């Protein structure tokens, strides 16, 4: 007796790929993580929707003279405004969750767009007496980005150790890149003379542009040939395992 394979219906659902969650699943995960960081997000979303709805209903009523039609259009614009506000709040929450965490700078650099090249892992690090992951917050690290403003070195960690590490890396980069290439030094944190992670990319983009695209590529090649100082991080501790922001999820993709 021959057995024939069962025919699959063209209307049968495809099995879900665990490595590729849908948009709703991504949005749900992002929403839960954001609300955990900032519990006021639902309130701001509701307020945005109601205010936008009322404003558009009043404005559009003078055009269409129909409360039902204006309510539908107002709801559409309200949902759009709510999504935009949620995206901004979720981004702030993501930066807030990375504040003070080792390797947070590498995650923040992901918001840089075309025209920049950067290393997602530190080019120099000093862990001090840290011997386990919980003590890595006391590690000083330096991250490097290259763009039209020149070379930007970003330090994180304890003030004294990060300043010392930044100065050492600045001299090292200047020696290889050449005196004509500007080298900017920034430190992330919440104290004086520091930049918050949330505005790090904006601060870097605001620097005066001094290099052409060709010069940026040339400097990048020189520094890649230079390599990185081997970070003295304790065994089993990897700064590359720092939290990463899901930019696509924030944009609803």
From TrEMBL:
InterPro entries found in the cross-reference section: DUF4191
TM annotation in the entry: 41-62, 68-90
Keywords associated with the record: Membrane, Transmembrane, Transmembrane helix
Presence of keyword Ribonucleoprotein: no
Annotated region described as Disordered, given as residue ranges: 1-22, 226-253
Compositionally biased residues, Basic and acidic residues: 1-20, 237-253
Protein name: DUF4191 domain-containing protein
């Amino acid at each position: 007796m021959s057995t024939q394979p069962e025919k699959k219906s063209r209307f049968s659902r495809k099995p879900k790929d665990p490595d590729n969650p849908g948009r709703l699943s991504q949005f749900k995960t992002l929403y839960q993580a954001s609300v955990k960081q900032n519990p006021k997000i639902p309130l701001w979303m509701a307020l945005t929707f109601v205010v936008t709805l009322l404003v558009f209903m009043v404005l559009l009523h003078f055009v269409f003279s129909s409360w039902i039609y204006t309510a539908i259009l107002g709801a559409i614009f309200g949902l759009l405004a709510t999504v935009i506000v949620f995206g901004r709040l979720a981004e702030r929450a993501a930066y807030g969750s990375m504040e003070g965490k080792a390797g947070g700078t590498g995650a923040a650099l992901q918001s840089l767009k075309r025209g920049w090249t950067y290393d997602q892992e530190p080019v120099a690090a000093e862990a001090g007496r840290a011997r386990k992951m919980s003590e890595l917050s006391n590690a000083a690290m330096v991250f490097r980005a290259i763009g039209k403003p020149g070379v930007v070195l970003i330090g994180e960690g304890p003030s004294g150790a990060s300043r010392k590490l930044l100065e050492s890396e600045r001299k090292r980069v200047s020696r290889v890149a050449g005196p004509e290439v500007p080298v900017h030094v920034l430190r992330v944190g919440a104290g004086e003379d520091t930049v918050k992670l949330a505005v790090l990319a904006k601060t870097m983009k605001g620097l005066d542009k001094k290099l052409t695209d060709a010069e940026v590529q040339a400097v990048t090649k020189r520094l890649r040939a230079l390599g990185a100082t081997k970070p003295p991080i304790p065994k089993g501790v990897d700064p590359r395992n720092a939290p990463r922001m899901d930019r696509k999820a924030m944009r609803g993709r």
